[in-house]
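#struct-help
A.M.: can someone run this one for me? Single chain, 75 residues.
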Amino acid sequence: MRKGIHPEYKVSKVVCVCGNVIEVGSTVKDLHVEICSACHPFFTGRQKLVDTAGRVERFRKKYGIEDPDEDGAKN
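D.P.: on it. Structure tokens below:
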């Protein structure tokens, strides 16, 4: 590698909103993520709705769709 043209590669911390901290090698000092392998539904097996900035509510309001959870369970 040529000297002086590559960014510095260092150990960085990736911090998730769930509190999980992972140490990785990166050119960025610290990273903050919203979802990681400890809380992602694919890895945990638990279904979790990931709603970014109320997109589901805006869609339902735009098309006049009622939330099924508000009416109670209809079995």
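A.M.: thanks! The domain at 10-63 is CATH 4.10.80.400 (Rhinovirus 14, subunit 4).
D.P.: also worth noting: The chain has a mean pLDDT of 79.
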